[in-house]
Design goal:
By secondary structure, the chain is α/β, with parallel strands linked by helices. The chain contains twelve helices and twelve strands.
Length: 354
């Protein structure tokens, strides 16, 4: 691979930091992380690569066009990977305006700046430039018992989060079609792995189970998600960013469909084996079914045949092995999550506004 200059928005987030670590460790590329450092960001997730000569960090908000324009003018990226987003469905139910601001206004602002940058490039630099927008399968809405989301599936977002990401996807497509901005998109299934902020299902259940707290499961736990290890996703994103066909979108998934209740029970079993606690006893008895989330999509499932066929990407991590590694990571990294639980988010219920 020839060296690229990659600007990663949201690079201190869960998925973004995995991408940045992979760029520094596995490629010759230079990277500039741009992150607002909201509640879910983690500079610690970047510590393993932060001392390297090919790494830079800038604290900035993607809604601040002047700041982003200055960073792009200085760094001169030939690839922008856009991962900055508000991403938790429950929080979008409570405060949809925050998601509109970051995911829609922020994306459109970034697109304007990227377009101006690209238009000013000449020769090979202009040819090399790409904009990669990273999105979610939630834009497609809910599946029934059968079928999979394809790249040409209709958009039917059912949460404010999904709607904000759908709008962002449409703006990226529009900038490509209208202005010729060399852009590519990707939509992934649910991610899990190290450094995930503990408001999401898997880390929340791990930490509650470790502490002997109730394990809240929406409804009867019948909702199905298609799980993808974050490092598999990071590999896919780099491949798409560099080699995906411009104007196209790529679905990224690992055929890891599981009911939520089965995921929770699997975590309980792993912890009972790896971290037994006589006071707590079998963790499965901590499961509590709670009132369902408003507009909760029943099932997601990704058809990832396009990225396999065109770009040669396949997942390396099975869900069983990846979940076991994830549980072990949280067991070994209390110094990372304990301050978050104590000072930022203690596991309280979100998304009950109706």
């Amino acid at each position: 691979m020839s060296e690229r200059r990659i600007l990663v928005t949201g690079g201190a987030g869960f998925i973004g930091s995995a991408v940045v670590r992979m760029i520094v460790n596995d490629t010759p590329h230079r990277v500039l992380v741009v992150d607002k450092l909201t509640y879910a960001a983690s500079r610690e997730a970047l510590t393993p690569v932060a001392s390297g000569p090919r790494y830079e960090f800038a604290r900035a908000d993607i809604c601040d066009g002047k700041a982003i324009s200055g960073l792009i003018a200085r760094f001169k990226p030939d690839l922008v990977m856009h991962l900055a987003a508000e991403s938790h469905v429950d929080r979008s139910i409570d405060k949809p305006a925050d998601f509109i601001e970051t995911n829609v206004v922020g994306t459109s602002t970034l697109l304007e700046v990227a377009l101006d940058h690209w238009r000013g490039l000449k020769g090979e630099a202009r040819t090399r430039f790409r904009f990669h927008h990273v999105s979610t399968d939630e834009v497609f809405g809910s599946l029934g018992a059968d079928g999979h989301f394809r790249e040409d599936s209709p958009y039917r977002p059912n949460s404010p989060y999904a709607a904000s990401k759908a709008a962002a996807d449409h703006f990226v497509r529009a900038f490509h079609a209208t202005y010729g901005l060399p852009a590519v998109l990707s939509n992934s299934s649910n991610n899990y792995g190290p450094y995930q902020f503990p408001e999401k299902l898997i880390p929340l259940i791990i930490l509650n189970a470790l502490e002997g707290k109730p394990l809240p499961v929406y409804g009867r736990g019948e909702n199905v998600r298609d799980w993808l290890h974050v490092e598999d996703h990071a590999r896919a994103l780099l491949v798409i960013a560099e080699h995906g066909r411009l104007g196209e979108s790529y679905n990224v998934g690992a055929a890891g469909e599981r009911k939520n209740i089965d995921v929770v029970r699997a975590i309980c079993a792993i912890l009972d084996h790896n971290a037994p606690d006589q006071k707590i006893g079998p963790r499965e008895k901590l499961i509590q079914f709670v009132v369902d989330r408003p507009g909760h999509d029943l099932r997601y499932a990704i058809d990832a045949s396009k990225i396999r066929r065109e770009l040669g990407w396949t997942p390396r991590e099975s869900f069983e092995a990846g979940l076991a590694k994830t549980v072990s990571w949280y067991l070994d990294h209390r110094a990372w999550w304990e301050p978050i639980r104590a000072r930022v988010y203690g596991g309280e219920r979100l998304g009950q506004r109706s």
